[in-house]
């Protein structure tokens, strides 16, 4: 203690120096730990950058900025989606109401069928007798299966849009429109001709509902129908098409001949019966063979005939955005 008293200032200075050394050592340890953590983080970032750089495609370099190119392509895709949205407009249901009642649907169903029948008459389109456009099961009803009114209203709007395209094309006759069963009324109705065995498909983007349409027309009207579906803003896709002759025959196309409509042992009047002299007065010359063209006459290049067409049309309805 005496030495400390004699060297008090020295002892105090030594203690202060020791504390400073301890503080410096602690700070140095903290700095080393921070540098080690930062170095590990830097190595991790460098490894990630090297991994990305080795990928195909890579983020790019000073000459090629793939990130900017990706952003530009994303902008182009979004612009295309916005433009394509004009062709995915939903078809308004009938009736178009937040909550469809049995009375409203029954009234609008009869009114819509009546409108379509008058539209077919105005366009000179032949319909089956008392045709209900696939709604025969619901036409005379006033009460419907609970939960079926909303899908029925959607289908009524879609059938109306399909019929309008067919009538605008001036087809000769509409044989049937078949839709998907959506209610117990459809299953119990027994109107098999009104329904298709296909079913609607739902994915992450849209609902795809099939319809099968059978009609009769010539090839120009068929082209107009396909053009109408293609130009529709409601995204109607023709998935399949089947075309066959409608079965109408004429004499020029191999129909019945007036010479075989009654019994005749010599069906060809230009052939001389056996035992009689060939030719002679009163015997007309034989007509030209079928398929030949008399001299000076115009040849038939195309003999248009009515066709029976069956189309499978898919209506694509995008799901609402979440």
Description:
The protein has 322 residues and is of the alpha+beta class. It is 42% helix and 13% strand. It is built from eight helices and five strands; from the N terminus they run H-H-H-H-H-H-E-H-E-E-H-E-E. Strands 1, 2, 3, 4 and 5 form a five-stranded antiparallel sheet that branches. Helix 4 (102-122) packs parallel to helix 6 and helix 6 crosses helix 8. The protein starts with a helix and ends with a strand.
Query: Beta-strand percentage?
Result: 5-15%
Oligomer: single chain
Determine the CATH topology of the domain at 94-247 and 306-318: Alpha-Beta Plaits
Main beta-sheet annotation: 5 strands, antiparallel
Compute the average pLDDT: 77
Low-confidence runs: 248-273
Helix content bin = 40-55%
CATH class annotation of the domain at 94-247 and 306-318:
Alpha Beta
Broad shape:
elongated
The SS-based structural class is alpha+beta
The helix tally amounts to: 8
The radius of gyration computed from the alpha-carbon positions, rounded to a whole number of angstroms, is 42 Å
The rounded distance between the terminal residues' Cα atoms is: 83 Å
Helix-strand pattern, N to C?
Answer: HHHHHHEHEEHEE
Query: Mind telling me which CATH architecture of the domain at 94-247 and 306-318 this is?
Result: 2-Layer Sandwich
How many extended strands? 5
CATH superfamily of the domain at 94-247 and 306-318: Ribosomal protein S6/Translation elongation factor EF1B
């Amino acid at each position: 203690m005496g030495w400390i008293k004699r060297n008090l200032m020295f002892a105090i200075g030594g203690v202060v120096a020791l504390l400073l050394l301890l503080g410096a050592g602690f700070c140095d340890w903290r700095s080393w730990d921070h540098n080690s953590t930062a170095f590990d983080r830097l190595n991790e970032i460098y490894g990630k950058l090297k991994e990305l750089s080795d990928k195909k495609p890579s983020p790019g370099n000073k000459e090629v900025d793939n990130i900017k190119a990706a952003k530009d392509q994303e902008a182009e895709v979004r612009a295309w989606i916005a433009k394509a949205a004009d062709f995915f407009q939903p078809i308004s249901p009938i009736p178009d109401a937040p909550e469809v009642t049995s009375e409203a649907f029954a009234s609008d169903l009869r009114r819509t069928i009546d409108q379509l029948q008058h539209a077919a008459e105005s366009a000179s389109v032949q319909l089956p007798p008392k045709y209900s456009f696939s709604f025969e099961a619901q036409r005379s009803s006033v009460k419907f299966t609970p939960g079926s009114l909303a899908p029925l209203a959607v289908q009524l709007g879609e059938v109306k849009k399909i019929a309008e395209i067919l009538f605008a094309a001036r087809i000769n006759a509409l044989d049937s429109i078949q839709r998907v069963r959506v209610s117990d009324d459809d299953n119990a109705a027994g109107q098999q001709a009104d329904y298709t065995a296909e079913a609607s498909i739902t994915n992450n983007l849209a609902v795809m509902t099939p319809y099968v349409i059978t009609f009769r027309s010539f090839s120009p009207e068929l082209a107009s129908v396909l053009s109408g579906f293609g130009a529709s803003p409601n995204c109607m896709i023709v998935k399949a098409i089947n075309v066959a002759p409608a079965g109408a025959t004429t004499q020029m196309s191999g129909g019945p001949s007036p010479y075989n409509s009654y019994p005749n042992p010599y069906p060809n009047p230009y052939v001389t019966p056996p035992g009689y002299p060939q030719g002679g007065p009163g015997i007309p010359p034989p007509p030209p063979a079928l398929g030949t063209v008399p001299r000076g006459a115009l040849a038939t290049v195309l003999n248009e005939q009515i066709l029976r067409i069956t189309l499978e049309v898919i209506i694509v309805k995008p799901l609402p955005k979440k």
